[in-house]
Amino acid sequence: MKRFVAAAVALLITLGCAAFAEAYQEQILFRKIPWGSSCDEIAKEIPLSDLRASRGHGTAELLLNGEGMDTDVGTEYVGRCTEDLPTVAGYTPNYMEFYFAAVPDENGYLPVDESGNIIADMQRTKLYAAYYAIQAGNSQKSQIDAYLDLTNKLTKLYGDADVTTDTETVWHGTEGTMVSLRKVYWSGYWTTDIVIAYGCTQGDEWLGTAQDAVDRVFAEDTEGL
Questions:
Q1: Which of 9, 56, 85, 180 could link 71 by a cystine bridge, Cβ 3.0 to 4.6 Å?
Q2: Among residues 15, 23, 2, which one has the least CA distance to residue 66?
Q3: pLDDT (tens digit, 9 = 90+) per residue, 155-193?
């Protein structure tokens, strides 16, 4: 139930903000990669490492500082790229991270192992979010300067922001797509990263479908009874 609330919150924020600022009239993409692309497709162009199964995060958590979806381990894969990193608006990221919803088979099942983790099938995945983690420096000024610089550059691309807070600025595109510029703080430091996160709210639906498939597998498991 919680996952549907999180998805609804993300959608309501998207629709509500559109009433105050005209959305960018195209999809917002990460590196021009279509949302829904498989991990296999992306790995042909971008070296992914540390690929792991994870609970479903959802766009509210990854892009809107909201609450995560209530899904189990086994609804998404997370992959990271730390090699051959591109320059992004004059900055070199520490890494890029990619979030893929797992896709059930043609019978509506999502294979899991005895621990409940999804069995890897990188062709049956859909990209729904990705981000750059950028090192801004360890002082207040360096973070502020970098954040303002990136805010101005994103505004030139996507127009006035739909959401602006002390720590986050969000632009919306069509079809539930968005980009979020976020300050990330760690205890004991002013900052370690600025995150530029991209995503599509359709990913929340994909994660919900994946969770339903996992639930179905466990509901039909009667071994040992």
A1: 56
A2: 2
A3: 999 999 999 998 899 999 999 999 999 988 654 544 457
Angstrom distance (rounded) from CA 198 to CA 174: 13
Distance CA 144, CA 26 (A): 29
Q: Which residues, at least 6 apart from 68, have a Cβ–Cβ distance to it below 8 Å?
A: 6, 55, 56, 57, 58, 60, 61
Q: Report how far apart, in Å, the C-alpha atoms of 142 and of each of 131, 186, 192 are.
A: 20, 15, 11
Rounded distance between C-alpha atoms, residue 218 and residue 82, angstroms: 36
3-class DSSP assignment, residue 74: strand
The whole-model pTM stands at 0.84
**Rg, Å, the chain Cα set:** 18
Q: What are the tens digits of pLDDT across the range 82-127?
A: 999 999 999 989 999 999 999 998 888 887 777 667 777 888 999 9
Residue 4: pLDDT over 50: no
Quick one: DSSP state of residue 154?
H
**DSSP assignment string, the chain:** -HHHHHHHHHHHHHHHHHTTSPPPSS---BTTBPTT--HHHHHTTS--EEEEEEE---HHHHHSS-PPP---EEEEEEEEE-SSPPPBTTB-EEEEEEEEEE---TTS---B-TTSPBPP-TTSEEEEEEEEEE---SSHHHHHHHHHHHHHHHHHHH-S-SEE-SSEEEEE-STTEEEEEEEEEETTEEEEEEEEEEEETHHHHHHHHHHHHHHHHHHT--TT-
